[in-house]
Amino acid sequence: MATLTTHARTADPSPEPEATLRRGSRRWTQRNWIGGSFGWVWLLIVMVPIYWIVITSFKTSSNYFSQNPMVPPSEPTLENYRLVIESDFARYFLNTTIVTVGAVIPAVVISFMASYAIVRGTGQRFLRYTNSLFLMGLAIPLQAVIIPVYLIIIRLKMYDTLGAIILPSIAFAIPLSVLVLTNFIRDVPKELFESMRMDGATEWRTLWSLAFPLTRPALMTVTIYQGLLTWNNFLLPLVLTQSPTQRTLPLALWSFQGQYSVNVPAVLASVVLTALPILLMYAIGRRQLLSGLTAGFGK
Amino acid sequence: MTALAPPPVGVRPTTNGGRSNAPVAWMAVPALAMFLAFGVVPLLGVLFLSFTTWDGIGEIQPSGLTSWRSVLSDPGLPHALWVTFLIMALSWLAQTPLSLLIGVFLAGRQRYREFLAILYFIPLLLSSAALAITFKALLDPNFGLGEGLGIELLRQDWLGESKLAMGVVIFVVSWQFIPFHSLIYQGGVRQIPTSMYEAAEIDGAGRLRKFFSITLPQLKYTIITSSTLMVVGSLTFFDLIFVLTAGGPGDATRALALDMYKRGFQANLMGPASVIAVILVLVGLGLALLLRRLGGRGDESQLEGA
Q1: What is the mean pLDDT of residues A113-131?
Q2: What is the model's pLDDT at position B40?
Q3: What's the CATH class of domain A87-298?
Q4: Is-contact B241 B169, C-beta < 8 A?
Q5: Ranges for the ABC transmembrane type-1 domain (chain B) (predicted)?
Q6: Domain residue spans in chain A?
Q7: Nearest CA in chain A to B265
Q8: What is the mean pLDDT of chain A?
């Protein structure tokens, strides 16, 4: 610690403008090693289990029990993946896709419309109350209302359908989506709205031809984030469906693990398969996801 | 929407700052309707159901305070509250310092840190069910990592002993959510004006001094935001505990949300389960308000002295 402190002290405090500009980045380079070594340790903590999942999913059962768990398989096999795919995972995959797309697209569209109305109709009491209601909704956990949701779904005669998962998913995506989207629509210069209005455009047209293109990055963020939550949701399918044909992936993982608990490599292959699409989405939309996640809470 | 005639142009074109004169409120109606139907109505519904008796299939019978009485006199409730509190406090203690450190680390602009950030974020992408299944296999006393590597320390009955099981829950929660909170802290650190650090450097402040006198106080609101999300979020850990320990061993990790599920959907006692749900909502709201109070008034400047 002492060496660090002296190191910082000897930093050249010269007030030349160029040095000041670069000071920001230099400060962090000097600060490196506590944070730096910690950063690598954390990387290890994150990556070791992930590495283990991936290599183990290619091991044969006997290989798994006889070999050092951290060494890649001597004879890699796709047998585990074959077993998973043959256990009807294609159907669970399709179900999860239907639920995710069917919930997220409508949720984002209606949240976008509501956010536009909330920003454009500032001062209207109805919209003010609506906005407060959504803000309050951020604090309602899905778990706390799952029993009445179950009751409503039964009364709608939708129990054990994919629609049963979709409807509450839409509702619970709204509060956070509206929070993020209103923040972004507020940043659109008022003059632009004004000139659309002067041109005689309806609000509906202004929504789609002005606000939509300008808030596209935020819409991407919200879509990816809600997609992630819906894809991984466990409670709604657990409570609102029962037959294997309506299963989504997280639920399928759970029952697969119950069935094949001794066959660890196969269970891990199922984990890899269910995570793959999300990892792909992450690779494509990483920047939007990361920046948008903080935008919702940071503002 | 062709009925929306454009307002007479030129009457007061700019006095309202571009605010809409045409009705826009209807656009909020679909979202409002969905949220009322599956958010607000269930919230009122759970209060209503807490005064009834229902097995989940048959008729719903009003039964006054029966459910409340049975839950409040059940020693399971203080236990579930205690477990919930323990998970909340321990996961906060584990996550906050680590997220803060990683956030400060990630706020540096070096390229390799950006690359690390990409990898750090992966745990948040996996479903809690997948994580629970993975760690269950990894920690298995007979077939897991400890046995395979021959490390005695890792060869414990992790999920079979109360204290260890609680520790595992806290570890997996931290493993999953620290990246998210680091991201919040990273954003917070980047908003601190460089001029403050420069002034401190001129005054001869060392690195630790700068961290405790500038970084930490400047992050006050970030810490409150992140803590609120952690604390309120910890009330809703369900999937993870359900798959990892199912509340066990015994009921060592039976937190409120799990307690509610077990009473409602496994024991078919929807009335008492609704009582637990109401308690869950009240605890969540109470904590959120408390933390907001702690944060003081939101409009005071964070940049005093900048």
Answers
A1: 88
A2: 92
A3: mainly alpha
A4: yes
A5: 81-291
A6: 34-77, 87-298
A7: A239
A8: 81
Any residues with CB less than 8 A from the CB of A53 and at least 6 apart, and which? A268, A271, A272, B134
In this model, does residue B147 exceed pLDDT 70?
no
Buried (b) or exposed (e) across A105-136, using 16+ Cβ within 10 A? Answer: ebbbebbbbbbbbbbbbeebeebeebbebbee
Distant-in-sequence, close-in-space partners of A172: CB < 8 Å, separation ≥ 6? A142, B38, B39
* Percent of chain B residues topping a pLDDT of 70: 86
Residues 204-263 on B with a CB inside 8 Å of A are 204, 206-208, 210, 225, 229, 232, 235-236, 238-239, 242-243, 257, 260-261
DSSP A142: G
Q: Is residue B283 in some structural domain?
A: yes
Four-point Cα dihedral A93, A97, A99, A101, nearest 10? 180
Tell if the CB–CB gap between B121 and A282 is shorter than 8 Å: yes
More confident residue, A297 or B147: B147
What is the residue type of B232? V
Residue B62: which H helix or E strand, with range? strand B61-62
Phi and psi at residue B173, in whole multiples of 5°? -60, -45
Torsional sign, CA A189, A111, B176, B208:
positive
Q: Check if B18 contacts A (Cβ < 8 Å).
A: yes
Whether B26 maps to a domain, the answer reads: no
Polymer length in residues for chain B:
306
Amino acid at B117: A
Residue numbers of the domain that contains B141: 63-305
Q: Which helix or strand (DSSP H or E) is residue A57 part of?
A: helix A32-57
Residue B305: left (phi > 0), alpha (psi -120 to 50), or beta? left
Is B122 part of the contact surface with chain A (CB cutoff 8 Å)?
yes
Q: Which residue is listed with tokens 């896709």?
A: A97
Q: Which residues pair with B53 in a beta bridge?
A: B61
Asked if the structure places residue B177 within a domain, the reply is yes
Contact B134 A170 (CB under 8 A): no
In a domain, B57, yes or no: no
